[in-house]
Amino acid sequence: MITRLDATLTADPARVLARLFVPGHELVVNTESRATGVLARILALPEDEVRSTLRDVLARYTGRHRDLPGTLAAHYEEISHRVPDAAALTAQRRTLIGAWFTHEYAIEAAALFNPSVVAHPDQSGLPPGHLRFVLSLRAVGEGHLSSVEFRTGVLGAGHELSLDDPGPHVEAGRPGPAVHDRALFAAVLAEDGSDAESASFLVSSLPARFGEAELERAIAALAGQRVTRHGGTRTAELARRIARCSYEVEFSPRSALAERVLWPQGPADARGIEDARFVRTVAEDGCPTYRATYTAFDGDRIMPQLIETPDFRRFRMTQLAGPAAKNKGMALFPRTVGGRHLALSRWDRENNAIATSVDGLWWGDAQTLHVPNRPWELTQTGNCGSPVETDRGWLVLTHGVGPMREYAIGALLLDLDDPSRVLGALREPLLRPRDDEREGYVPNVVYSCGALRHGDRLLLPYGASDAAVRFAVVDVPLLLERLIADGPPPAIRENSVA
Q1: Superkingdom of this entry's organism (predicted)?
Q2: In sequence order, what are the residues at sequence separation of 6 or more whose Cβ sits closer than 8 angstroms to the Cβ of residue 20?
Q3: 481 exposure class (CB count in 10 Å sphere: 0-12, 13-18, 19+)
Q4: pLDDT in tens, 92-110
C-alpha cells in the first residue's frame, strides 16, 4: 500500500533570520536590559572606527540577508528611545547601533519535521500527470522556539518527486494588526476568565467587526465606570492581550514562497508556532483559500489557532474558541458537511474526536470517534492532518503511540455524509519507524500533519524522529479496501462523548 521515496529534507543551520537582539534579554524578555551600557560603549567609538566596523559587518553579513541595511535601520529605530542626543548621530553610527542590536537566528538549527502538504496555487507549465505542491514544515531553533516555513516541489506521474531550491534568504514578513470578530472575541474573553459584567459592557460597545481604535474606545468607556465595575481593569488587560493574539503578516512579493517564515508575533504563540495542518478550501464564490490550524505556545499554555491565506504571501492568524478548540492536533475538513464546518479534535489529549461549528471559529462539544485500542496506539491516538475526501468516505490518517513511546501512522475511514460514523480502522500501522528513521531529536517517531491526494495516489510527507522530513506514496484504492476489510474499531466507551 505504501512506497517510501528517496527525497529527504534535513535541517539547514544556514537558514537564518536577522532578529532584534536586546543584550540581557536573550530568549527571556522579562530580564533586565543591558542596552544602556552597550549603547554607551558604542557611542564612545571614534568615527573612523565606526566606519571600519560597519564596513566589516556589511561585508560579512549582507549576502546572508535580502536587505540587511534596511533591517539594521529598523532595529535601530526600535531602540532609539534609549539613545541620548540621537539627532546628532551620523547615519553610519545609527546603522552600526542597529547591528549591535541584531542577531542571526538559525530557524532550523535544532530540528525540521512535522510537514503538511497542499496543492500549489500555481499549476501552470506542468506536464500531464504532474502536481506542484506547497509543503509546510515545523522548524525548531535555539531555545526550542518553533516557526513554520515552506518548501515547494513537484510530484511526477509515477513515484518521481522533486524539491525546489528554497533560495538563499529567509524573512519573517511584516506583521500588522488584524480586524476582529466581535462574537469570537467575546467567546475568548469569557474563556479567559474575565469579569462577566465588565466583559459584557465592553463587548456591547464594539461593532461586529472592529480594530484597535474601536477596542481602545470601548476600553476607555469601561474605565469611566471603574467605580461600579471592579473587574474592569483586568478585563481591559485581557482584551488587549486577546486582540494581540490575532494578527496579519505580509511578505514582500520579491520573496520566494520557500523564503517565507511564519515567526511568532502574538502573545499566544510567543514561544512557538507548532505543527501547522494546512488544507485547501474553496469558498462559495469559487475562490480557493488555504487554512491551517496550529498549536500556539506561550511558554505556559497551548491552544489551537487558525491561519488563513489566499496566496501564501498574506496570512491572517486568528484565535479559536469553544470546548473542542483545546489542546493539540486540531485539523479542519476541506469543506462543510450538511452546512456546518467540521474539524478533527484531540481536546482530551488521547482520543480522536469530531467537532462542528457554524462559523468555523467557535467549536462546540466534540464527539469521540476512535480511542486507543491496538497495541501500537494504546498511549494515545490523534490525527495526522485534515481528512482527505474519496468516493468511499473521508480518509483520515492517524497517529498512535505504543511501547517505548514509538509513534506510528494509521488510518480511519469516515462516512461521507455523516463523518461521525467510522467505517473502518487499520488494525496494523500504515507506517512505522524504519531502522534508519529511529534516531533523532525525538527518537522512534514517524508523524505527519497532512497528506495530499493526486488521483489514486496519496503523497504523504512525514517527519522521521524530528531529524528529517521524508516522503511516501500511498495507493489509495488499496488503502480503502484494507480499511473496509478491517472494519470499524471496537465499540467506543459509553462516556466517550464530551
Answers
A1: Bacteria
A2: 75, 78, 101, 102
A3: middle
A4: 999 999 999 999 999 999 9
- Spatial separation of the C-alpha atoms in residues 244 and 270, rounded to whole Å: 11
Output the CA–CA distances (angstroms, integers) from residue 367 to 325, 388, 421, 481, in the order listed: 13, 19, 10, 26
What's the confidence (pLDDT) of residue 490? 81
**Residues 397 and 370: beta-carbon distance below 8 Å:** no
Residue in 8, 108, 117, 139 with CA at minimum distance from that of residue 434: 8
Quick one: how far is CA 169 from the chain centroid?
20
Show me where the domains of the chain are located: 2-9+107-174+246-496, 22-100, 179-245
**451: amino acid identity, one letter:** A
Q: Give me the percent of the chain exceeding a pLDDT of 70.
A: 97
Distance CA 208, CA 176 (A): 20
CA-closest candidate to residue 9, choices 104, 106, 118, 114: 114
pLDDT tier at 305, thresholds 50, 70, 90: very high
* Cβ-contact 98, 57 below 8 angstroms: no
The DSSP symbol for 237 reads H
Written as one letter, the residue type at 129 is: G
pLDDT category of residue 493 using cuts at 50, 70 and 90: very low
